């Protein structure tokens, strides 16, 4: 039953939009690379966590068919978004788990019927708050590898053009598609609703890492973050965490998924020819 509903409620956003006819831009040289943790949902949608104006965490689906960033009205209200008379708002800061941070991102604030239907039944066991569409995704070269625990987002020095509206639906889906919501309401009465999960923010150290020649090295340290307070610096090589050798960046990311706010971590670090240990207390992450 879930699979049938997932198919019927598939994310087909953007049916009411067209793009300006422009020549396909040439991708500029790749810049900063981020590893973004994701979850593959029961409906086979790819979900990431993010914050809007510091509020969250929120659950957003990566939807290559959506022409823009879509934010639910509930998430928009929690983030303090000011919506204009056409349904658009500017997100001052958008932080995607994994270190990505965007500013002044334009967002469409509404409740897409696809998400309304899935949330009504709680098909995936969590609430969905929006969709990351073209205007966000086109800023990066995103690599999907479902054998990995993270997606790779490589920043591009290119800003995509804004979508051009073909018709203004006022947040309403076409009648034949909006009927999917009614279907989910009916199915809920038959098979019930899954319980809501308890959100647990991940621990936050405030460092960006890179792997070079078998070594995991600090590429950036966020100002005011726990790592900065502990004295970690760009160029430091992580040798072990709580006695576990840092064998690779992917293994470290798996380990870090278990860190919670307040977790005390003993890091063994090499800086130049010196090796030392430092304790870092994880802050509140996404």
Structural features, described:
By secondary structure, the protein is an alpha+beta fold. It has 2 domains: 2-191, Cathepsin D, subunit A, domain 1 (Beta Barrel); 203-284, PDZ domain (Pdz3 Domain, Roll), CATH 2.30.42.10. 19% of the residues lie in helices and 37% in strands. The chain has helices at residues 2-8, 73-78, 113-121, 134-137, 175-191, 226-229, 249-256; strands at residues 17-18, 30-37, 39-40, 46-52, 55-62, 69-71, 88-96, 100-109, 130-132, 140-143, 150-156, 164-165, 203-204, 207-212, 215-221, 237-241, 244-245, 264-271, 274-281, 283-284. The strands form 5 sheets. It has a 6-stranded mixed β-barrel with strand order 4-5-9-6-8-7. Strands 14, 15, 16, 17, 18 and 19 form a 6-stranded antiparallel sheet that branches. Helix 3 (113-121) packs parallel to helix 5. The protein starts with a helix and ends with a strand. Mean pLDDT is 79; it is low at 1-23 and 166-171.
How confident overall, as mean pLDDT? 79
Q: SSE order, as H and E?
A: HEEEEEEHEEHEHEEEHEEEHEEHEEE
- If you compute it from the alpha carbons, what radius of gyration comes out, rounded to the nearest whole angstrom? 21 Å
Judged by helices, strands and strand pairing, the structural class is alpha+beta
Our count of domains comes out at 2
CATH class division of the largest domain: Mainly Beta
Discrete helix count? 7
Morphology: elongated
Helix content: 10-25%
Low-confidence stretches: 1-23, 166-171
CATH fold name of the largest domain? Cathepsin D, subunit A, domain 1
What's the architecture of the largest domain, going by CATH?
A: Beta Barrel
DSSP strand (E) fraction? 35-45%
Report the end-to-end length measured between terminal Cα atoms.
Answer: 32 Å
Largest sheet: 6 strands, mixed, barrel
Strands across the major sheet, in which order?
A: 4-5-9-6-8-7
CATH homology-level superfamily of the largest domain: Acid Proteases
Q: Strand tally, please?
A: 20
